[in-house]
Protein backbone atom coordinates (compact mmCIF):
# COMPACT_ATOMS: atom_id res chain seq x y z
CA UNK A 1 0.00 0.00 0.00
CA UNK A 2 1.98 2.97 -1.28
CA UNK A 3 1.50 6.53 -0.13
CA UNK A 4 2.28 8.93 2.67
CA UNK A 5 0.92 9.18 6.20
CA UNK A 6 1.11 11.36 9.28
CA UNK A 7 3.32 10.32 12.17
CA UNK A 8 4.56 11.86 15.41
CA UNK A 9 8.30 11.46 14.85
CA UNK A 10 10.87 11.57 17.64
CA UNK A 11 13.66 13.74 16.26
CA UNK A 12 15.75 14.64 19.32
CA UNK A 13 15.59 14.76 23.09
CA UNK A 14 12.28 16.41 24.07
CA UNK A 15 11.36 16.84 20.39
CA UNK A 16 8.44 15.07 18.73
CA UNK A 17 7.07 16.57 15.52
CA UNK A 18 4.23 15.68 13.19
CA UNK A 19 5.60 14.73 9.77
CA UNK A 20 4.55 13.08 6.54
CA UNK A 21 6.41 9.80 6.12
CA UNK A 22 5.90 6.81 3.80
CA UNK A 23 3.31 4.22 4.74
CA UNK A 24 5.42 1.20 5.75
CA UNK A 25 5.71 -1.62 3.26
CA UNK A 26 4.88 -5.12 4.45
CA UNK A 27 6.47 -8.42 3.52
CA UNK A 28 5.47 -12.05 3.61
CA UNK A 29 3.65 -13.03 6.79
CA UNK A 30 3.16 -9.38 7.78
CA UNK A 31 0.12 -7.15 8.24
CA UNK A 32 -0.53 -3.41 7.84
CA UNK A 33 -2.82 -1.92 10.47
CA UNK A 34 -4.61 1.44 10.30
CA UNK A 35 -4.34 2.82 13.83
CA UNK A 36 -7.49 4.09 15.51
CA UNK A 37 -6.20 4.63 19.06
CA UNK A 38 -2.77 4.58 20.67
CA UNK A 39 -2.11 5.40 24.32
CA UNK A 40 0.89 7.38 25.52
CA UNK A 41 2.88 5.23 27.96
CA UNK A 42 5.40 6.33 30.56
CA UNK A 43 8.09 4.32 28.77
CA UNK A 44 7.42 6.34 25.59
CA UNK A 45 7.97 9.53 27.59
CA UNK A 46 11.16 8.17 29.16
CA UNK A 47 12.64 7.53 25.72
CA UNK A 48 11.60 10.96 24.46
CA UNK A 49 13.06 12.84 27.41
CA UNK A 50 16.25 10.86 28.06
CA UNK A 51 17.50 10.23 24.55
CA UNK A 52 17.93 6.55 25.37
CA UNK A 53 17.00 5.64 21.79
CA UNK A 54 18.60 7.13 18.69
CA UNK A 55 16.38 9.33 16.50
CA UNK A 56 14.43 9.24 14.29
CA UNK A 57 11.80 6.84 15.57
CA UNK A 58 8.04 6.58 15.96
CA UNK A 59 7.05 5.40 19.42
CA UNK A 60 3.70 4.13 20.71
CA UNK A 61 2.72 0.56 21.58
CA UNK A 62 -0.71 0.65 23.28
CA UNK A 63 -2.59 0.44 20.00
CA UNK A 64 -5.61 -0.89 18.20
CA UNK A 65 -7.00 -0.48 14.71
CA UNK A 66 -8.10 -2.15 11.49
CA UNK A 67 -6.16 -4.39 9.11
CA UNK A 68 -5.53 -2.43 5.90
CA UNK A 69 -3.38 -4.93 4.02
CA UNK A 70 -2.02 -8.44 4.47
CA UNK A 71 1.13 -10.05 3.10
CA UNK A 72 1.40 -13.42 1.43
CA UNK A 73 1.33 -16.43 3.74
CA UNK A 74 -0.79 -14.64 6.35
CA UNK A 75 -3.42 -17.03 7.63
CA UNK A 76 -6.33 -16.38 9.98
CA UNK A 77 -6.60 -12.64 9.32
CA UNK A 78 -8.25 -10.58 6.59
CA UNK A 79 -8.48 -6.96 5.49
CA UNK A 80 -11.04 -5.00 7.51
CA UNK A 81 -10.70 -7.03 10.71
CA UNK A 82 -10.38 -5.12 13.97
CA UNK A 83 -7.19 -5.95 15.92
CA UNK A 84 -4.67 -4.91 18.54
CA UNK A 85 -1.00 -5.79 18.35
CA UNK A 86 1.51 -6.54 21.07
CA UNK A 87 4.89 -5.08 20.14
CA UNK A 88 6.95 -7.70 22.03
CA UNK A 89 6.56 -11.49 21.77
CA UNK A 90 9.18 -13.91 23.16
CA UNK A 91 10.77 -16.88 21.43
CA UNK A 92 9.26 -19.40 23.84
CA UNK A 93 12.30 -21.73 23.92
CA UNK A 94 15.23 -19.87 25.52
CA UNK A 95 16.38 -20.13 29.15
CA UNK A 96 14.32 -17.12 30.24
CA UNK A 97 11.20 -18.28 28.43
CA UNK A 98 11.46 -21.68 30.10
CA UNK A 99 11.60 -19.82 33.43
CA UNK A 100 8.61 -17.69 32.26
CA UNK A 101 10.70 -14.53 32.68
CA UNK A 102 9.65 -13.48 29.20
CA UNK A 103 10.72 -9.84 29.36
CA UNK A 104 14.36 -10.97 29.59
CA UNK A 105 14.18 -13.04 26.37
CA UNK A 106 16.36 -11.58 23.58
CA UNK A 107 13.60 -12.08 21.02
CA UNK A 108 11.13 -10.37 23.35
CA UNK A 109 13.42 -7.35 23.54
CA UNK A 110 13.13 -6.92 19.77
CA UNK A 111 10.26 -4.69 18.66
CA UNK A 112 7.95 -6.29 16.13
CA UNK A 113 5.79 -3.33 15.11
CA UNK A 114 6.90 -0.18 13.32
CA UNK A 115 5.72 2.87 11.44
CA UNK A 116 9.11 3.31 9.80
CA UNK A 117 12.72 4.04 10.78
CA UNK A 118 14.08 1.64 13.41
CA UNK A 119 11.26 -0.36 14.97
CA UNK A 120 9.95 1.36 18.12
CA UNK A 121 6.27 0.48 18.28
CA UNK A 122 4.92 2.89 15.70
CA UNK A 123 1.50 3.55 17.20
CA UNK A 124 1.97 7.32 17.03
CA UNK A 125 1.21 7.11 13.31
CA UNK A 126 -1.64 6.38 10.94
CA UNK A 127 -0.33 2.94 9.97
CA UNK A 128 1.95 0.31 11.45
CA UNK A 129 3.68 -2.69 9.97
CA UNK A 130 3.19 -5.80 12.14
CA UNK A 131 6.05 -8.26 11.63
CA UNK A 132 5.56 -11.97 11.08
CA UNK A 133 6.34 -13.28 14.58
CA UNK A 134 3.91 -10.76 16.06
CA UNK A 135 1.21 -11.71 13.55
CA UNK A 136 1.72 -15.35 14.52
CA UNK A 137 1.42 -14.91 18.28
CA UNK A 138 0.70 -11.30 19.21
CA UNK A 139 -2.04 -10.00 16.89
CA UNK A 140 -5.39 -10.15 18.68
CA UNK A 141 -8.82 -9.89 17.06
CA UNK A 142 -11.13 -7.32 18.62
CA UNK A 143 -14.89 -8.06 18.60
CA UNK A 144 -17.25 -5.47 17.14
CA UNK A 145 -18.78 -4.69 20.53
CA UNK A 146 -15.41 -3.62 22.04
CA UNK A 147 -14.35 -0.03 21.29
CA UNK A 148 -10.83 0.48 19.99
CA UNK A 149 -10.20 2.73 22.99
CA UNK A 150 -10.85 -0.25 25.29
CA UNK A 151 -8.79 -2.61 23.15
CA UNK A 152 -5.81 -0.25 23.28
CA UNK A 153 -5.54 -1.09 26.99
CA UNK A 154 -4.93 -4.81 26.38
CA UNK A 155 -1.13 -4.51 26.55
CA UNK A 156 -0.98 -2.31 29.68
CA UNK A 157 -3.61 -4.44 31.42
CA UNK A 158 -1.47 -7.51 30.70
CA UNK A 159 1.51 -5.86 32.39
CA UNK A 160 -0.59 -4.96 35.44
CA UNK A 161 -2.27 -8.35 35.62
CA UNK A 162 1.15 -10.00 35.50
CA UNK A 163 2.20 -8.01 38.59
CA UNK A 164 -0.99 -8.87 40.49
CA UNK A 165 -0.64 -12.57 39.62
CA UNK A 166 2.96 -12.55 40.87
CA UNK A 167 1.79 -11.27 44.26
CA UNK A 168 -0.74 -14.08 44.85
CA UNK A 169 -2.92 -11.74 46.91
CA UNK A 170 -5.33 -13.19 49.46
CA UNK A 171 -8.66 -11.88 50.67
CA UNK A 172 -7.26 -10.84 54.06
CA UNK A 173 -4.42 -8.81 52.52
CA UNK A 174 -4.32 -5.03 52.64
CA UNK A 175 -2.67 -3.42 49.63
CA UNK A 176 -1.46 0.15 49.16
CA UNK A 177 -1.11 1.41 45.57
CA UNK A 178 1.03 4.54 45.39
CA UNK A 179 -0.04 6.69 42.44
CA UNK A 180 -3.44 6.84 40.76
CA UNK A 181 -2.62 7.62 37.20
CA UNK A 182 -4.13 5.19 34.71
CA UNK A 183 -1.66 2.40 35.54
CA UNK A 184 -2.13 2.89 39.28
CA UNK A 185 -5.90 2.67 38.92
CA UNK A 186 -5.64 -0.51 36.83
CA UNK A 187 -3.29 -2.11 39.38
CA UNK A 188 -5.59 -1.14 42.25
CA UNK A 189 -8.74 -2.33 40.45
CA UNK A 190 -7.16 -5.69 39.64
CA UNK A 191 -5.90 -6.03 43.21
CA UNK A 192 -9.41 -5.39 44.52
CA UNK A 193 -10.82 -8.14 42.31
CA UNK A 194 -8.83 -10.65 44.41
CA UNK A 195 -10.85 -9.68 47.48
CA UNK A 196 -8.01 -7.75 49.11
CA UNK A 197 -8.59 -4.40 50.83
CA UNK A 198 -7.03 -1.71 48.64
CA UNK A 199 -5.78 1.70 49.76
CA UNK A 200 -4.76 4.25 47.14
CA UNK A 201 -2.61 7.36 47.45
CA UNK A 202 -2.29 10.30 45.08
CA UNK A 203 -1.74 14.04 45.16
CA UNK A 204 -4.89 14.86 43.20
CA UNK A 205 -8.46 14.53 44.47
CA UNK A 206 -9.60 14.42 40.85
CA UNK A 207 -7.72 11.16 40.33
CA UNK A 208 -9.23 9.64 43.45
CA UNK A 209 -12.62 10.54 42.01
CA UNK A 210 -11.84 8.62 38.83
CA UNK A 211 -10.54 5.70 40.91
CA UNK A 212 -13.80 5.65 42.87
CA UNK A 213 -15.54 4.75 39.62
CA UNK A 214 -13.61 1.48 39.76
CA UNK A 215 -14.71 0.72 43.30
CA UNK A 216 -11.58 2.12 44.93
CA UNK A 217 -13.01 3.75 48.03
CA UNK A 218 -10.06 3.98 50.42
CA UNK A 219 -8.19 7.09 49.19
CA UNK A 220 -5.19 8.65 50.97
CA UNK A 221 -4.10 12.22 50.26
CA UNK A 222 -0.44 11.87 49.26
CA UNK A 223 0.24 15.38 50.58
CA UNK A 224 -0.28 13.99 54.08
CA UNK A 225 1.38 11.18 56.01
CA UNK A 226 0.78 8.14 53.81
CA UNK A 227 2.74 5.79 56.08
CA UNK A 228 0.70 6.80 59.12
CA UNK A 229 -2.55 6.27 57.22
CA UNK A 230 -1.41 2.85 56.04
CA UNK A 231 -0.60 1.82 59.60
CA UNK A 232 -3.84 3.29 60.91
CA UNK A 233 -5.73 1.01 58.53
CA UNK A 234 -3.84 -2.10 59.67
CA UNK A 235 -3.73 -1.96 63.50
CA UNK A 236 -0.30 -0.25 63.26
CA UNK A 237 1.31 -3.22 61.46
CA UNK A 238 1.64 -1.72 58.01
CA UNK A 239 0.08 -3.06 54.84
CA UNK A 240 0.81 -6.49 53.42
CA UNK A 241 1.76 -5.23 49.97
CA UNK A 242 2.74 -1.89 48.44
CA UNK A 243 2.60 -1.38 44.67
CA UNK A 244 4.64 1.65 43.58
CA UNK A 245 3.04 2.89 40.35
CA UNK A 246 5.11 6.08 40.14
CA UNK A 247 8.68 6.25 38.86
CA UNK A 248 10.04 8.31 41.74
CA UNK A 249 12.90 6.71 43.68
CA UNK A 250 12.00 8.69 46.81
CA UNK A 251 8.71 6.78 47.07
CA UNK A 252 10.55 3.48 47.55
CA UNK A 253 11.47 4.63 51.06
CA UNK A 254 7.84 5.50 51.73
CA UNK A 255 6.76 2.09 50.47
CA UNK A 256 9.28 0.25 52.63
CA UNK A 257 8.09 2.21 55.67
CA UNK A 258 4.42 1.53 54.92
CA UNK A 259 4.72 -2.23 54.48
CA UNK A 260 4.58 -4.59 57.46
CA UNK A 261 7.36 -6.92 58.58
CA UNK A 262 7.34 -9.84 56.17
CA UNK A 263 5.43 -7.79 53.61
CA UNK A 264 6.25 -7.08 49.99
CA UNK A 265 7.00 -3.92 48.00
CA UNK A 266 6.62 -4.20 44.23
CA UNK A 267 8.19 -1.60 41.94
CA UNK A 268 6.16 -1.21 38.78
CA UNK A 269 7.34 2.08 37.28
CA UNK A 270 11.06 2.21 38.09
CA UNK A 271 12.31 2.03 34.50
CA UNK A 272 15.10 4.60 34.77
CA UNK A 273 18.46 3.99 36.42
CA UNK A 274 18.88 5.73 39.74
CA UNK A 275 19.65 5.26 43.41
CA UNK A 276 17.11 4.68 46.16
CA UNK A 277 17.80 4.93 49.88
CA UNK A 278 16.28 2.36 52.20
CA UNK A 279 17.40 0.66 55.37
CA UNK A 280 18.84 -2.78 54.48
CA UNK A 281 17.81 -4.11 57.89
CA UNK A 282 14.22 -3.73 56.69
CA UNK A 283 14.97 -6.48 54.15
CA UNK A 284 17.12 -8.63 56.43
CA UNK A 285 15.77 -8.31 59.97
CA UNK A 286 12.21 -7.21 59.16
CA UNK A 287 12.05 -9.72 56.30
CA UNK A 288 10.49 -7.27 53.89
CA UNK A 289 10.73 -8.20 50.22
CA UNK A 290 11.57 -5.63 47.50
CA UNK A 291 10.59 -6.93 44.08
CA UNK A 292 9.69 -5.77 40.60
CA UNK A 293 7.50 -6.57 37.62
CA UNK A 294 8.18 -5.37 34.09
CA UNK A 295 6.33 -5.62 30.79
CA UNK A 296 3.86 -8.26 29.62
CA UNK A 297 3.56 -12.04 29.88
CA UNK A 298 2.42 -14.35 27.08
CA UNK A 299 1.50 -16.91 29.73
CA UNK A 300 -1.54 -14.82 30.65
CA UNK A 301 -2.18 -13.25 27.24
CA UNK A 302 -5.53 -14.91 26.54
CA UNK A 303 -6.70 -14.38 30.11
CA UNK A 304 -5.75 -10.72 29.99
CA UNK A 305 -7.53 -10.18 26.68
CA UNK A 306 -10.72 -11.72 28.05
CA UNK A 307 -10.41 -9.57 31.17
CA UNK A 308 -10.41 -6.43 29.02
CA UNK A 309 -13.28 -7.58 26.81
CA UNK A 310 -15.51 -8.86 29.60
CA UNK A 311 -14.63 -5.92 31.84
CA UNK A 312 -16.07 -3.58 29.22
CA UNK A 313 -19.13 -5.71 28.59
CA UNK A 314 -20.16 -5.94 32.24
CA UNK A 315 -18.88 -2.49 33.20
CA UNK A 316 -16.50 -3.76 35.87
CA UNK A 317 -13.39 -2.63 33.98
CA UNK A 318 -14.47 0.02 31.48
CA UNK A 319 -11.04 1.50 30.83
CA UNK A 320 -12.31 4.14 28.43
CA UNK A 321 -13.25 6.07 31.59
CA UNK A 322 -9.53 6.55 32.23
CA UNK A 323 -9.05 8.57 29.04
CA UNK A 324 -9.01 12.28 29.79
CA UNK A 325 -7.50 13.72 26.60
CA UNK A 326 -7.54 12.71 22.94
CA UNK A 327 -5.10 14.27 20.46
CA UNK A 328 -4.57 14.18 16.72
CA UNK A 329 -1.03 13.60 15.51
CA UNK A 330 -0.71 17.26 14.54
CA UNK A 331 -0.93 18.10 18.25
CA UNK A 332 1.74 15.60 19.28
CA UNK A 333 3.94 18.16 21.04
CA UNK A 334 1.08 19.21 23.34
CA UNK A 335 0.12 15.58 23.97
CA UNK A 336 3.66 14.75 25.07
CA UNK A 337 3.85 17.89 27.20
CA UNK A 338 0.63 17.09 29.05
CA UNK A 339 1.47 13.41 29.51
CA UNK A 340 4.88 14.42 30.89
CA UNK A 341 3.45 17.06 33.22
CA UNK A 342 0.25 15.61 34.70
CA UNK A 343 -2.42 18.02 35.84
CA UNK A 344 -5.27 17.42 38.30
CA UNK A 345 -7.70 16.70 35.48
CA UNK A 346 -5.41 14.63 33.26
CA UNK A 347 -5.32 10.84 33.23
CA UNK A 348 -4.72 8.69 30.16
CA UNK A 349 -3.59 10.57 27.05
CA UNK A 350 -4.28 8.91 23.69
CA UNK A 351 -3.63 9.67 20.05
CA UNK A 352 -6.46 9.32 17.54
CA UNK A 353 -4.57 9.22 14.21
Automatic annotation (TrEMBL):
One annotated GO molecular function: oxidoreductase activity, acting on the CH-OH group of donors, NAD or NADP as acceptor
Keywords for this entry? Metal-binding, Oxidoreductase, Zinc
Q: Which cofactor does it need?
A: Zn(2+)
Q: Which residues form the Enoyl reductase (ER) domain?
A: 11-351
* Similarity section: Belongs to the zinc-containing alcohol dehydrogenase family.
Name under which the protein is recorded:
Alcohol dehydrogenase GroES domain protein
* Annotated source species: Granulicella tundricola (strain ATCC BAA-1859 / DSM 23138 / MP5ACTX9)
Q: What is the lineage of its organism?
A: Bacteria, Pseudomonadati, Acidobacteriota, Terriglobia, Terriglobales
Amino acid sequence: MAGMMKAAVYRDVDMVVCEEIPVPEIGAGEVLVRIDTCGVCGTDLKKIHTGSHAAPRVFGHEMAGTIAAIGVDVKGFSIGERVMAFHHIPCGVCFYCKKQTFAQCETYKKVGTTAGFEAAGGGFAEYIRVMDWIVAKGLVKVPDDIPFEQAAFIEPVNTCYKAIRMLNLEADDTVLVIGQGSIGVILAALAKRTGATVLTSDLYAERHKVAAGFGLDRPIDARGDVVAEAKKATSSRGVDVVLVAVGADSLITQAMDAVRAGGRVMLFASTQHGTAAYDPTAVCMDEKTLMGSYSASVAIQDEGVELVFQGFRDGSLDLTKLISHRFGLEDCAEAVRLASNPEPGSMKIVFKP
